[in-house]
Design a protein that fits this description.
By secondary structure, the protein is an alpha+beta fold. It has two domains: 3-46, no CATH class; 66-178. It has two helices and ten strands, in the order H-H-E-E-E-E-E-E-E-E-E-E. It has helices at 3-11, 20-46; strands at residues 66-71, 77-82, 89-93, 96-100, 108-113, 118-123, 129-134, 140-145, 154-161, 166-173. Strand 8 and strand 9 (154-161) form a beta hairpin. The two termini are 59 Å apart.
Length: 181
């Protein structure tokens, strides 16, 4: 659409410009049509859920002194690490890594069922968990800890079955040479 085709009703076929009154009337008509179109689009967007419409959030449950490690694929379970000291620092002192902060014995790994907020499983690990993930069936999950401070060359891996409440534990050696440069 060109400017000439838009102004054709105003200019007329003879090429003469219409009166100011007709020009102002056409501009008002175009502006009104544009505003009505925008209002209709806004009204349509307000009925669509999602980011275009702000939804108020409601806090359902709060867990203090805990951080989330994993959520099950079916979104019915969540794995937390409960600790009173969520921050730990490490320093390199005279060629040796030193952990400055509380150990994992102050924390507890826990799995909570979101339907009723009841605890399904809890255990203590040798060190704080670095990562955790549920298997596809949401009945088992894998957790891996940070390096264990006693030597800083081992880490704990565990597979926990929530049906049988069993824990398959493995201490894995950390090989610094396996990390690519």
């Amino acid at each position: 659409m060109t400017l000439r085709s838009l102004l054709m009703p105003i200019i007329g076929k003879t090429g003469l410009v219409a009166t100011r009154r007709r020009f102002a009337g056409e501009c008002v008509a175009w502006a009104a049509a544009l505003l009505l179109e925008r209002a209709a689009k806004a009204r349509d967007r307000s009925n669509v859920p999602g980011p275009t419409r702000a939804q108020p959030l409601k806090l359902v449950k709060e867990f203090t002194n805990a951080y989330t490690l994993a959520v099950s694929p079916d979104s019915e379970r969540i794995c937390f690490f409960f600790t009173g000291h969520p921050h730990v620092t490490f320093s390199f002192d005279r060629g040796k890594w030193v952990g400055a902060g509380p150990g994992a014995n102050d924390g507890l790994l826990g799995v909570i069922d979101l339907d009723g907020w009841k605890g399904l499983y809890s255990t203590r690990l040798l060190e704080r968990p670095a990562s955790a993930s549920f298997f596809a069936d949401s009945e088992r999950f894998h957790v891996e800890t940070h390096l264990i401070p006693a030597s800083f060359n081992t880490r704990q891996e565990a597979i926990i079955d929530l049906r049988t409440h069993s824990l398959q534990n493995r201490i894995r050696a950390y090989d610094r040479r396996a990390i690519p440069p």
